[in-house]
């Protein structure tokens, strides 16, 4: 961000300082909680969840390093930490914000694979070399996008356009560079995650059975199977002498004793086949229900990402094109804070969208309740 002649009255300065401090607190504590959950709860360490950990690390640095250094700068309109710290702050700020966006893409791709290639995805459990490679690649790509330019721009141009008491990137008004960078940083990721979301949606829609008035054989089998299980459960409470007769009368038609053996064997064969079909149907329904939850949670995360990133990206490009004369500074400043706000919202989305995180947070805050009710969220 670029602070240009911003001056606030004393009450406004205090209010802004409190609000910014609160944002820092929420961002740091929220993402620290996610990181701590991975340390405490081993069941959380699945392949897909490690990408959420990668996102939490990026968002934690936003709240723990980037925002605190910017607060005195925006309130006083003067950078007081020197040119070296300014370079470091710019590199880290651009790095973690870009890494946060790239992690959203990685999470979206992981969820896309888990839905569309479920069999091969389930083979890989926990962290693998491929998972680590993807996480590291996100940070390398995020650094290469802006880092070298921030460090070397003034040396290549053989001059600096930054005033002594200001801190912003040398390419702040370079429209061509920002257009290319923003395409890689926002537009390409946004198109990618939109594609992943639509693919998941159509995959689920294709697998969702059309409801009809007449039940299918599998549905009837499921109802019969459930009915039998229910009757078996009820028969436990009957008198011992009548239990056998009740079970037989529940499952077998009334036939002469001579043909009972053949009928019983036939029923065993058909019953086994029917149970297998019912099991497959139940498993398919479970996977479909799980994938719907994945799609819903992913859609929420992506929508928040778009709302927080789009204003800043568009205003940054327009601002660079007109050299800051066509976009009001306060509007640009709000869009910049909206970008940072995404890092505070992300850890709040985890417990809302994922049962595994709700369980982990329950273990952290209420360990006694988690032991008494281990399946409270299932």
UniProtKB/TrEMBL annotation:
A Pfam cross-reference name: 7tm_1
Q: How does it sit in the membrane?
A: Multi-pass membrane protein
GO biological process terms, alphabetically, are: adenylate cyclase-inhibiting G protein-coupled acetylcholine receptor signaling pathway; G protein-coupled receptor signaling pathway, coupled to cyclic nucleotide second messenger
Record domain G-protein coupled receptors family 1 profile: where: 30-350
Listed transmembrane segments? 12-39, 51-71, 91-114, 135-156, 176-202, 294-314, 334-353
Checking PROSITE patterns in the record gives: G_PROTEIN_RECEP_F1_1, G_PROTEIN_RECEP_F1_2
Tell me a Gene Ontology molecular-function term this record carries: G protein-coupled acetylcholine receptor activity
Q: Provide GO CC annotations from the record.
A: dendrite; plasma membrane; synapse
Q: Which Gene3D superfamilies does the entry link to?
A: Rhodopsin 7-helix transmembrane proteins
Q: Which UniProt keywords apply?
A: Cell membrane, Disulfide bond, G-protein coupled receptor, Glycoprotein, Membrane, Phosphoprotein, Receptor, Transducer, Transmembrane, Transmembrane helix
Q: Which CDD domains match?
A: 7tmA_Histamine_H3R
Question: Where found?
Answer: Cell membrane
What's the family?
Belongs to the G-protein coupled receptor 1 family.
Could you tell me what this protein is called? Histamine H3 receptor
Coding gene? LOC113445005
């Amino acid at each position: 961000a670029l602070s240009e002649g911003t001056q606030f009255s004393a009450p406004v300065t205090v209010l802004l300082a409190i609000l910014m401090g609160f944002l820092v607190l929420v961002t740091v504590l929220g993402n620290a909680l996610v990181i701590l959950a991975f340390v405490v709860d081993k069941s959380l360490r699945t392949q897909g969840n490690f990408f959420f950990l990668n996102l939490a690390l990026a968002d934690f640095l936003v709240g723990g390093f980037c925002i605190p250094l910017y607060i005195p700068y925006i309130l006083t309109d003067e950078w007081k930490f020197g040119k070296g710290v300014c370079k470091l702050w710019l590199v880290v700020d651009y790095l973690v914000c870009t890494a946060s966006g790239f992690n959203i893409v990685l999470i979206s791709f992981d969820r896309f694979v888990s839905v569309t290639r479920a069999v091969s995805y389930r083979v890989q459990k926990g962290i693998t070399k491929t998972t680590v490679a993807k996480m590291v690649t996100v940070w390398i790509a995020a650094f290469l996008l802006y880092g070298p330019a921030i460090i070397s721009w003034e040396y290549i141009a053989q001059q600096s356009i930054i005033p002594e008491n200001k801190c912003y990137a040398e390419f702040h008004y370079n429209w061509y560079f920002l257009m290319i960078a923003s395409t890689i940083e926002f537009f390409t990721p946004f198109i990618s995650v939109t594609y992943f979301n639509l693919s998941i949606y159509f995959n689920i829609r294709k697998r969702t059975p059309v409801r009809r008035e007449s039940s299918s054989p599998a549905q009837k089998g499921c109802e019969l199977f459930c009915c039998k299980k229910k009757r078996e459960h009820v028969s436990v409470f009957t008198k011992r002498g009548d239990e056998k007769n009740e079970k037989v009368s529940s499952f077998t038609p009334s036939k002469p004793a001579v043909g009972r053996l053949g009928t019983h064997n036939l029923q065993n064969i058909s019953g086994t086949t029917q149970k297998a079909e019912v099991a497959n149907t139940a498993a398919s329904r479970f996977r479909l229900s799980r994938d719907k939850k994945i799609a819903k949670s992913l859609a929420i995360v992506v929508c928040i990402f778009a709302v927080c990133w789009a204003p800043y990206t568009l205003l940054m490009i327009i601002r660079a094109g007109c050299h800051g004369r066509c976009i009001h500074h306060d509007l640009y400043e709000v869009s910049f804070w909206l970008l940072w706000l995404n890092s505070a919202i992300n850890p709040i989305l985890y417990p809302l969208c994922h049962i595994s995180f709700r369980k982990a947070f329950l273990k952290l805050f209420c360990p006694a309740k988690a032991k008494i009710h281990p399946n409270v969220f299932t």
